[in-house]
């Protein structure tokens, strides 16, 4: 069975088409071309702002012309992560989808259901002539995943009316009415290349096969962070051996918990077997600490050819100590909404881009603005003490919940009528574009929802097939309820 055989046929048809179009963050030109062609084919009014966001407009169905305008919104880009043994070029290759029972996943890569299924729902609504609805705008934003660039730079003309349905949530049966704000903190170490000592052998220490996941939605699960696991072993080894560091690489994206990390180190040839024993003991400790959380965790030590140079010892010590000490995970829980993470931080990636630099990327989230800046400054202080140069992104605001929201009331009523139960009303620790929309358009009344996704921002990403049909029914029922009201 292929995903094009699934029901409802229209939404799965468009989701399949979207998976065939490469759309990495900041490289949305192909998906934009696809969307513009769709609008032309459907005879829809369409406009594009300078940053690349696209807005399509569909007139109301007959008799609903006086209903409020509803903006449906999702983002074009996807997180591009793959397993190390998979050959895949996200710039050119389509996503290969696989059906397993009640789930759709990709073949060793991220699926892109975040937020491809939201886009597919918008296109299905725009294409479906049988729906009852008022005036509909469909907003597609660019570069959500790496900086909310489209939402930050969106022109005012792209949103009109007071109702917005964000289709970028991952738990069917839940209505999200708030989200965390976020900020990125980046530390840059500059090192001096050093000569290699005599009688040293070189090894690659690797951490692999962690679950990773979304640094907002999965941060409370206690999953392993490959950068921290590796740094902990390197720090421990540096206390015992005259160890040098030549290279380090871990994680990829600021909003993903790192699944893999590696370092090329050198030790005196007389110490190599001792270190190997130490590693085996360390693996036992990690397996005990991570049991039932990271069932596939592996850590290896492999011979490596002699590098051209190593990182100077002062920077090596500072880097390892800072990575070992850097906080990661939940900082505080909400006192207003039970079970909601309030503040967190993610030690996201360690990269060596050249020019004798080591770049450490971290991200912080909080539903309380003061706490967001507090944890970012704590991370800044740590890396400043280690001798790095630290900078922050502009950050983005959170979305304060409004339990008296009219669109929320309509969404709750629609769900109860369809399925006989009340949906869960909650907030999300992940960042949504809604906070930026609200900042620019204070009149907006918003709710976010979607089908059930699992493992987003990792190659384990999958989407629950039955939840897609419930999501579609709920979306169209909300539009019908709005159509029965007056603007």
Automatic annotation (TrEMBL):
<keyword id="KW-0378">Hydrolase</keyword>
<keyword id="KW-0170">Cobalt</keyword>
<protein>
    <recommendedName>
        <fullName>Cytosol non-specific dipeptidase</fullName>
        <ecNumber>3.4.13.18</ecNumber>
    </recommendedName>
</protein>
<dbReference type="GO" id="GO:0006508">
    <property type="term" value="P:proteolysis"/>
</dbReference>
<keyword id="KW-0862">Zinc</keyword>
<dbReference type="GO" id="GO:0070573">
    <property type="term" value="F:metallodipeptidase activity"/>
</dbReference>
<keyword id="KW-0645">Protease</keyword>
<dbReference type="GO" id="GO:0005829">
    <property type="term" value="C:cytosol"/>
</dbReference>
<keyword id="KW-0479">Metal-binding</keyword>
<dbReference type="Pfam" id="PF07687">
    <property type="entry name" value="M20_dimer"/>
</dbReference>
<dbReference type="Pfam" id="PF01546">
    <property type="entry name" value="Peptidase_M20"/>
</dbReference>
<dbReference type="InterPro" id="IPR002933">
    <property type="entry name" value="Peptidase_M20"/>
</dbReference>
<dbReference type="GO" id="GO:0046872">
    <property type="term" value="F:metal ion binding"/>
</dbReference>
<feature type="domain" description="Peptidase M20 dimerisation">
    <location>
        <begin position="206"/>
        <end position="292"/>
    </location>
</feature>
<comment type="similarity">
    <text>Belongs to the peptidase M20C family.</text>
</comment>
<dbReference type="InterPro" id="IPR011650">
    <property type="entry name" value="Peptidase_M20_dimer"/>
</dbReference>
<keyword id="KW-0482">Metalloprotease</keyword>
<dbReference type="InterPro" id="IPR001160">
    <property type="entry name" value="Peptidase_M20C"/>
</dbReference>
């Amino acid at each position: 069975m292929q995903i094009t055989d699934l029901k409802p046929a229209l939404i799965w048809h468009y989701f399949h088409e979207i998976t065939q179009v490469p759309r990495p963050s900041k490289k949305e030109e192909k998906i934009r071309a696809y969307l513009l062609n769709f609008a032309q084919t459907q005879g829809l009014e369409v406009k594009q702002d300078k940053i690349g966001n696209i807005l399509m407009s569909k007139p109301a169905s007959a008799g609903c012309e006086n209903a409020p305008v509803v903006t449906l919104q999702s983002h074009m880009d996807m997180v591009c992560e793959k397993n190390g043994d998979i050959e895949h070029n996200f710039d050119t290759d389509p996503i290969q989808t696989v059906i397993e029972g009640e789930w759709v996943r990709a073949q060793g890569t991220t699926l892109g259901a975040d937020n491809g299924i939201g886009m597919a729902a918008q296109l299905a609504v725009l294409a479906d002539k049988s729906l009852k609805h008022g005036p509909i705008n469909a907003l597609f934003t660019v570069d959500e995943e790496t900086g909310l660039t489209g939402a930050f730079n969106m022109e005012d003309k792209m949103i009109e009316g007071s109702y917005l349905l964000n289709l970028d949530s991952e738990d069917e049966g839940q209505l999200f009415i708030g989200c965390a704000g976020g900020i990125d903190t980046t530390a840059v170490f500059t090192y001096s290349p050093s000569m290699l000592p005599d009688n040293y052998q070189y090894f690659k220490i690797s951490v692999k096969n962690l679950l990773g996941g979304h640094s907002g939605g999965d941060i409370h699960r206690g999953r392993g962070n490959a950068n921290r696991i590796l740094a902990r072993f390197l720090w421990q080894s540096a206390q015992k051996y005259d160890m040098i560091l030549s290279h380090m690489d871990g994680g990829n994206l600021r909003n993903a918990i790192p699944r893999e990390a590696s370092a090329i180190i050198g030790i005196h040839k007389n110490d190599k077997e001792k270190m190997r024993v130490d590693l085996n003991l360390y693996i036992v400790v990690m397996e005990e600490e991570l049991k039932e959380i990271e069932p596939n965790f592996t850590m290896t030590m492999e011979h490596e050819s002699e590098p051209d140079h190593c990182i100077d010892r002062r920077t090596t010590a500072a880097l390892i100590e800072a990575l070992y000490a850097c906080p990661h995970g939940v900082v505080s829980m909400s006192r207003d909404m039970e079970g909601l993470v309030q503040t967190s931080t993610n030690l996201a990636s360690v990269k060596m881009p050249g020019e004798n630099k080591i770049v450490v990327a971290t991200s912080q989230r909080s539903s309380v603005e003061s706490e967001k800046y507090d944890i970012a400054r704590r991370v800044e202080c740590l890396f400043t003490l280690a001798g790095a140069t630290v900078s922050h992104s502009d950050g983005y605001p959170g979305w304060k919940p409004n339990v008296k929201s009219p669109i929320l009331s309509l969404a709750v009523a629609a769900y109860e009528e369809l399925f006989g139960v009340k949906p869960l009303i909650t907030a999300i620790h992940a960042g949504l574009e809604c906070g930026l929309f609200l900042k620019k358009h204070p009149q907006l009344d918003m709710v976010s929802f979607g089908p059930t996704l699992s493992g987003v921002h990792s190659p384990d990403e999958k989407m629950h097939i039955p939840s897609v049909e419930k999501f579609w029914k709920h979306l169209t029922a909300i539009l019908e309820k709005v159509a029965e009201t007056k603007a």
